[in-house]
Amino acid sequence: MNWLLDPLTYVFMQRGLVASVIVGMVCAVIGSYVVLRGMAFLGDALAHAILPGVAIAYITGGNLTIGALVAAVIVALLIGLFSRQGTIREDTAIGILFAAALALGVALISTIRSSAQDLSHILFGNILGVSATDLWMVGILGLLVLTIITWFYRPFLVISFDPTLAATLRWPGEFFRILLLVLLALTVVISLQTVGIGLVAAMLVTPAATAYLLTRRLSTMMFLSAGIGAVSSIIGLYISYYASIASGAVVVLVATGFFLLAFLFAPQRGLLWKK
Amino acid sequence: MPVSQSLETKQPARLEMENVSAGYDGQMILQNLSIQVQHGAQVAVVGPNGAGKSTLFKALVGLLPLRSGRIFIHGEPLGHHKDCVAYVPQREDVDWRFPVSVAEVVLMGRFARLGWTRRPDKNDHAAVAQALEQMNITNLAKQPIGDLSGGQQQRVFLARALAQEPHILLMDEPFTGVDASTQEATLNLLDRLKSQGVTVMVSTHDLNMAAQRFETVLLLNKGLVAYGPPASALSAASIQRAFGGQVLFLNDVAAIVDDCCPGEDHHHPTEIA
């Protein structure tokens, strides 16, 4: 059992583990909606759109996470606004904003003379560099996202499954759609610590897609997805510790391994039982 | 806005439309429609494709804003009574791969009463069980909806509308693309709703069905063409006006040459005596 406990004697490993489990679970839960509503592109776009916020925070010496948070929420709201009355399709709105924000981020970063060590962490995550403050931030924002998703389970279910019913009930479908975008933005921001911009989309989509293959109930899907996200994070972090591989990448690869297992062996839906 | 009256006693709905116009950006599909639907009436809404049947329903449930005109339900403006209009959408409006079970979908019929967060109580579960029973799908309750046939999916949505205990029920093309037993189940449901005094509007491509099974027909083509009992509303002249070049007259029998009807082929040519 020593190999299990040894890493935990280091504070950075404890923090990294807690942060990545929280992020894995939050990503996986909101990821259920990402998968069901076809928002994978949006999740990825939000992650990249954060870059200018981070760059500005870096240049002005502010908190990078707060910079990312502000940028993510602004972009989420803009996407919601642009695609509001169906003036342009949502994926077009995302494409425009995503590219514009990324370009702005790159432009800003190119003005920074010094070596931007912290910024590379934003791109690829730095799970072992989680500070106590970061951990609090991840914990509080993660809890906030999970609470809202749970509390508004019913409206989110209705706007995703049958938007017509939401309109019939006179529920503010538009409000919940934008709320979901903002929650997604928060999730992306807390994921920056662990898997980074490049791999956030995988943490949003892969555990939820795996769970989708295993169940046909939304609530069960969310629990399963959260479990897969958490377990992938733990296994990934241990492999990363012993094999000295970039942690975010291993976490994503482990999650992908679970997906492939489900894709092949899932009861009824698995590839192996189909023929 | 006046104080809400209690709707505890299930008073049948009365629906009034005054000069209602509605449509999508720039394109006015329904124009200046004024009708009154009596308490507990069952109205078949017919007309060619693009005549505004779905637009009418969407305007009635608040899915499309009115461009002009007013709609009253129980004498109150639209939106005042939240749970008394149930809408059975066309099946293609729903994401069937969504992971929900039949019972969960039917429970959605109670959401108007339950709101965003309140837990369902005994009455809600009883209403769901009864609706499943009435549509004869109790055995499917735990099934994911994605595994059902088209006819079964339709029954689930009818059960959801029943669980809502509506005063006005709108069904968009419930007879299109479903098997004969589901058509029959839908017609039986109409009979039962009739005895309960629920006002029903059903859009259909099937003029035969409209003429034989409904006492009132609303014939639309972008606006009102005719409204009344089938004998007068579906007169040769009205049908000619609504369907124009799509209609063929053979010995006073109208046959609609409807070649862009969604769903099955067995609907055309439709004949009415």
Q: For the largest beta sheet of chain B, what order do the strands appear in spatially?
A: 6-7-8-3-9-10
Q: Please name the CATH architecture of the largest domain in chain B.
A: 3-Layer(aba) Sandwich
Reported by name, the CATH topology of the largest domain in chain B is: Rossmann fold
Question: Looking at this structure, what is the CATH superfamily of chain A?
Answer: ABC transporter involved in vitamin B12 uptake, BtuC
Through-space gap between termini of chain A: 42 Å
Number of contiguous helices of chain A: 14
Greatest interface by residues involved? A-B, 26 and 30 residues
- Total DSSP E strands of chain A: 0
Q: Give unreliable regions of chain A as ranges.
A: none
What value does the Rg of chain B take, in angstroms? 19 Å
Q: Give the biggest sheet of chain A.
A: none
Nearest-integer average pLDDT of chain A: 87
| Multimerization state | heterodimer
At the first level of CATH, the class of chain A is Mainly Alpha
- Helicity level of chain B, as a percent range? 25-40%
Structural class of chain B: alpha/beta
Outline of this structure?
Chain A is mainly α and 275 residues long. Chain A has helices at residues 2-5, 11-36, 40-49, 51-59, 64-82, 90-110, 117-124, 132-151, 153-161, 163-168, 173-191, 196-214, 218-243, 247-265.
Detailed description of the structure:
The complex is a heterodimer of chains A (275) and B (273). Chain A is mainly α and 275 residues long. Chain A has one domain: ABC transporter involved in vitamin B12 uptake, BtuC (Orthogonal Bundle). Chain A contains 14 helices and no strands. In chain A, helix 4 (51-59) packs antiparallel against helix 5, helix 5 packs antiparallel against helix 6 (90-110) and helix 12 (196-214) packs parallel to helix 14. The longest helix of chain A is centred in the first third of the chain and has 26 residues, at 11-36. Chain A is globular, with a radius of gyration of 19 Å. Chain B has helices at residues 53-61, 102-107, 111-114, 122-134, 150-163, 180-196, 207-213, 230-233, 236-243, and strands spanning 15-24, 27-37, 42-46, 66-73, 76-77, 85-88, 168-172, 199-203, 216-220, 224-228, 247-250, 253-256, 270-272. Chain B contains nine helices and 13 strands. Chain B is 30% helix and 26% strand. Chain B has two domains: 11-81 and 167-183 and 192-243, Rossmann fold; 96-165, no CATH class. Chain B has 273 residues and is α/β, with parallel strands linked by helices. In chain B, the strands form three sheets. Chain B has a six-stranded mixed sheet, sandwiched between helices. Mean pLDDT of chain B is 81; it is low at 1-10 and 259-273. Classes of the chains: A mainly alpha (275), B alpha/beta (273). The A-B interface holds A 36, 85-86, 151-152, 154-155, 157-158, 160-162, 164-165, 167-171, 212, 215-218, 220-221 and B 25, 61-63, 79, 82-83, 85-87, 89, 93-95, 97-101, 104-105, 108, 111-112, 114, 116-117, 144, 146-147.
